[in-house]
Amino acid sequence: MIFAGAALYLSSMRPPGPPPAFLKARWGMGPEAVARANGQALAPSLTPDRFYRVDEKLRAAGRYRALEGRGTFLGREAKVTYAFLDGRLVAYYVFVEDADSERLDAEMRARLAAEFGAGIPVEDGSPLKMIWSKQDLVVNYWLVLDELRMTPKYRAGFGARYLPFENVPPKPPLKK
Question: What backbone torsions phi and psi does residue 86 show, to the nearest 5 degrees?
Answer without folding.
Answer: 55, 35
